Amino acid sequence: MFYAVSALGTRHGFATSKHGQLIGWFNKEFIKTGVFKRNYGKTLRDAFEIRKQGDYDAFIEF
């Protein structure tokens, strides 16, 4: 998901390697303006949180 939204950012002149910045930009440009439904922003945030848990927590429960 990160790379898909990152490609969207590149297409619109925005580039970052930080997940948090990318999510913030996506929400500002596409969720708050109504281009995408709010559930897309929530799904992106949830996926980021799960990735962080998988990368940094000793144990994760799915």
From TrEMBL:
Protein name, per record: Uncharacterized protein
InterPro entries assigned: UPF0332_toxin
Domain of life: Bacteria
